[in-house]
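Teaching soon. Got one?

===
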Amino acid sequence: MPSKAVDIPRNRVTEPFQYAAPKLVMEAPSMQPWTISPPSLSPLHMSPPNMELPNFSPIQDHMPLPTLSASTFTPPQSFLTLQHSEPISVIKFSRFDPTVLAVGSSFDDPDDAQPKREECSITIYRVEDVEREVRGDDKMIARGVYDVRKKLRPRLHEMTAVKSPGAVLDLAFSPHEPELLVATLATGQLIAYRVRRGRYKIKQISTHTIAPETPLYSIVFSPGEKTLAAVTAANGQVYLVQLSGFPSENDSIKPVQTIQAHSSRVLRAAFSADGKALYTGGEDGSLSEWSVKHLDKIKHKWGDGSAHESGITAILPWPAPFASDIGKKRRLLLTGDYDGKLKVLDMSSHVRPPYRRQELELHGVIWRLTPLPALPTYEEVKSLGAGSFCAATNPKVELDPELQGVLAAAGRGGGRVLIHKQKFEDVFLPKRDGSDIVDWTTSDGVKMDYEGREKEYYWYDLADIEEHGDSPVYAGDATAVIDYDPLFKDAGQQKLRRGWRLATASRDGTMCFWQVYVE
């Protein structure tokens, strides 16, 4: 069922808080599908494509930082909204097919201690790339700046839906089996589905009771062990289960190990990029790391009871699993909590519990942290053509390790776009062997320059997505996209540019979509 694009009034321009010089552009033309209309380009409401913001920085860094032309100055506006029939708890794009979007529902908030066990649903949407025409306003056309140009815009089609016996608290596509989708429910059940590629059909293949009448809040697949997944539960336990292929018999999946990870509910867990460690966060604010290299000898490596003042609701190792910069950057751990605080922990040193390097206030429960998917290098873009880009199905395409970021679903704070950047600190470290060193990296992933200075990493909160109003945002995801540049041509042809398609969903069932471009 195709959706209609809905224009939402923009918020007033807020007073600038000290920030950034940009090479990222958030674009949101105000138009209906398949229509040509002049978008408003007033600088008070929306910066034109490729327009740069004032050059300022919170850390007095001489290096230019990327930002968005619609950041907290002018909150970005979505170019497409869709009203789902039920309150949304989670949305996930397929890692192998960015045209597949799975949406799970829950009539109670996903973090409720006892979410209702009434029947909910999982819906599959097809995200179609449609080539449309856009043009500038009359003044720009008169100056010859704009003529009719091509742009990509998504169109959503509701393809199929299945009922679930309880509230859907999490969904996860397997990173190893392209058609396997797993859901965790408030009933303590884990349900496996097959989502046919190219057919957009979902079929339930098996149901497994992991913890009877105990809400299962999340599931995460190991990036290292193809059959291993971790399921978190309301009883403080984390269940390690093995999903080999497509389980077809009910209750054939049993936990191979059970970890009593915390004394309170465990809302999230995350594997390290190599799959050898598992991080868990408790509702009491405690954080733990477990060695899962050998399932018969799981070890508690360290715990930190002072990690957060409130319950931990999101965990993400950095660089993220399957990212293009694994092994090239300092290892970090991102954690979020009920108070809306994002903490950046340094995992590259041997100090445990790890040092806290940075803290950001996101003004709302940080329910999910989703890494923005890998983008191809600019040289590769020229040969790929316009459309959604999937790194998993393009293994020969060179990926850009420098373009990294996160989409945060931040409760009543709305969706947030965070960008990861780096700079050299003015702290000199001793050279390990005294030799003449040019740029090098330590075994802990810490980059140094030729003078032995450490290269630090910082996170920047660059955009607030506020169109969900007061409705809590518990779900968000992103895919990579290559689109036409609206301004620049090369030999008479429109240039291409790369970026991300962002999707956020709120508890009132509203899904909003944006596209962010890297120049």
